[in-house]
Amino acid sequence: MPDNVITVENLNKSFGSVQAVEKLSFTVRGETCFGFLGPNGAGKTTVMKLLYGKCLRDKNDGTVVDVLGYDPAQNELAIKSLSGVVQQEDNLDDELNVIQNLWIYAGFYGLEKNTAKKQIEYLLEFLELSAKAKSRIKELSGGMKRRLVIARALMNNPKLLILDEPTTGLDPQVRHLIWDKLHQLKKRGTTILLTTHYMEEAFQICDEVLIMHRGRNIMCDSPKNLLKQHVERFVLEVTGSDSMSVLDSTELSQQVRIERSEEMTRLYSNDTEKLRALANKLEGAQYYLRQANLEDVFLRATGRGLDDKQ
Amino acid sequence: MTNNDTPRIPPLWRRLYSVWFRHVRVYTRNMFSNALPPFLEPLLFLVGIGLGLSRYVTQTMEGLSYIEFLGTGLLMTSAMFTSSFECTFGTFIRLEFEKVYDGMLAAPITVNNLIIGEILWAGSKGLFFSFAVLCILTVFGIISLPYSLIVPLIGFITAVMFSTLALLITSFVKTINHFNFYFTGLLSPMFFFSGVVFPVADLPGKIRPFAELLPLTHSVRLARAICTNRYSASLAGDFLYIIIFIFVVGFFAVRRLRRRLVN
Predict the structure, then answer these.
(1) Average pLDDT in the A100-128 region?
(2) Does A158 touch chain B (CB under 8 A)?
(3) What is each CA distance from B77 to B52, B70, B73, B93, B195, in whole angstroms?
(4) What does the pLDDT average to over B72-76?
(5) Sheet of A264-269, strands arranged across
(6) CA spacing 20 to 30 A to A259: which of A107, A139, A223, B25?
(7) Rounded to an integer, what distance in angstroms lies between the CA atom of residue A196 and that of residue A36?
(8) Which chain B residue is nearest to residue A101, measuring alpha carbons?
């Protein structure tokens, strides 16, 4: 099994009085995909920035940050030369076309002209952008821009790829294409670290998921184990608060776990028959019986209400 | 494709060069709209002055005709303004709106590399802009070659000096409109009171020391000395002022901007 690529112990970061990251510890094994899940403002982006030296961590005793064998506080250049970063914004140079954008970054990574030329051709092909090589950035769709930013981050064949919400706001086709590419990169030995809001994304591509809330590590495991250990297997979702009145609530709470929000009641149980029997009693009400998913784990872990950072 | 295993960090000169090159590449994309104005502006100025004002200004200034006096000053103001625009509005837009720097800082470039690359780019722009003025002045026979050919180098260090000041201002600015204060409050007065349009010696005695504090005063003196090939020992003081200014203001600009980029 490959060694750990990232080791973080007791990482803290505060902005003034706001504690963005608190006592965070995790390890990322080589050649795996590690996902950060968390509500907006949970501190996911800050963690990414702390890893490549865009943010400076708080000075605490006993803090360890090791990325590819280097500490970002001391050796940010070594880390940056071995990794690629895809930030949330598509920060491309609008004045330049697609291929010129890549040439600028080939310069940043210090690639020789011939190497750069080959690498750029390969990356355009890999991310299916060859036909757009001469296009201006303004002519690109959101999905193309995102792919170009990913291509740019792969310029130096990184050992570690950091992606901050790589598929937010993209259509399903592009999202699946990006997942495919990330799978291929992983197979080739690239370690991937990503943040996402999409539970499905985390489930599809992550080997391990860390759920973060208010700067803390709430739980961390493989998506399958998270499902198995933190939520019942099935959910009955009942729409409308009146519909539930036909069920005896004291009896009900002994049989299943109940989560209520304003217009929706969710009944959780490992026994699908039990839920089906309950559903049959709900005459005419709208209901939906489904398998529990990572979103249920996530909402259970981080709560359904919004806090002031969201 | 195999993954990178050992870090290959580009050497310092390469990192600075790649930042500088990024700016050159973006600037030269619109050659027509970017390269024409630096020639056009001094042309308009000289035609306007030559056709109108100079007839009334018959006195010589520091031994030069008015058009010579003003022309040699414009060599420096063009460098001052281009570098100031680049490192206020330009830098701010890259920093806050386009997030260009965030992307660059994910590549093997440090914040210091980034800012110094930026300063060198502003200097290069100053070199080009004062070269453009030099071309116009030469075509009109206002100054003569060959000794004035080195004056764009003074344009370079002048632009570097003003870029450090502009970056320091930028490090404080929260909204882009605040730059208006800098341009109206500091650069416009400098244009009038640094010996560009009339000699500093003609200022009232109490105000003169303040003119000596203004950075542009020293650049203009150097440029004029080179164009007229008349040197004096006091020019060493002007040169020293500029160098010290660059290092002192540059130090604080880098320090403050670094905090804004890496927090």
Answers:
(1) 96
(2) yes
(3) 21, 10, 7, 23, 11
(4) 94
(5) A257-260, A264-269, A234-239, A287-291
(6) A223
(7) 6
(8) B22
pLDDT at position A1 over 50: no
Distance CA B43, CA A34 (A): 61
- Helix, strand, coil fractions of chain A, as percent rounded to 5: 40, 25, 35
Chain B touched by A72 (CB under 8 Å): no
With CA atoms as reference, the chain A residue closest to B3 would be: A157
Residues making up chain B, counted from first to last: 263
- 3-state SS, B194-250, equals CCCCCCHHHCCCCCHHHHHHCHHHHHHHHHHHHHHCCCCCCHHHHHHHHHHHHHHHH
Residue A148 structure tokens: 């170009």
The closest alpha carbon to A109, from A136, A137, A81, belongs to A81
Nearest CA in chain B to A190: B3
Interface check A107 vs B, CB under 8 A? yes
Interface test with A, best of B9, B96, B104 (most A CBs within 10 A): B9
**What is the per-residue pLDDT across A42-83, written as a single tens digit (0 to 9) for each?**
899 999 999 999 999 999 888 999 999 999 999 999 999 999
Which among A91, A111, A121, A157 is the top mutation candidate for probing chain B, defined by the most B β-carbons within 10 Å of its own β-carbon?
A91
Q: Does A87 touch chain B (CB under 8 A)?
A: yes
Average pLDDT of the residues of chain A? 89
pLDDT of residue B2: 63
Residues of chain A with pLDDT > 90, as a percent, come to 61
Model confidence pLDDT, tens digit, residues B12-40? 999 999 999 999 999 999 888 888 999 99
By the 10 Å C-beta count (0-12 exposed, 13-18 middle, 19+ buried), B98 is classed as middle
Beta carbons of A15 and B110 less than 8 Å apart: no
Most B CBs within 10 A among A83, A108, A119, A187, hence the mutation to make, goes to A108
Q: Which of A77, A103, A153 sits opposite B110 (nearest CB)?
A: A77
Which two three-digit tokens encode residue B246?
A: 């660059």
Residues B156-175 have a mean pLDDT of 96
CB-closest option in B9, B14, B109 to A78 = B9
Cβ contact B10–A109 (<8 Å): yes
Residue B159 near residue B83 (C-beta atoms within 8 A): yes
Partner-chain contact B2 A55, CB within 8 Å: no
- What's the rounded Cα separation, in Å, for the pair A117 and A244? 65
Q: Are B45 and B72 in contact (CB under 8 A)?
A: no
Query: Tens digit of pLDDT for each residue in B93-126?
Result: 999 888 899 999 999 999 999 999 999 999 999 9
Angle at B82 between CA B80 and CA B84, to 5 degrees: 65
Q: Average pLDDT, stretch B165-171? A: 96
Q: Is A266 on the interface with B (CB under 8 A)?
A: no
Helix B66-85 and helix B151-172: axis angle, to 10°?
40
Interface confidence, given as ipTM, is 0.89
Q: What is the pTM of this model?
A: 0.90
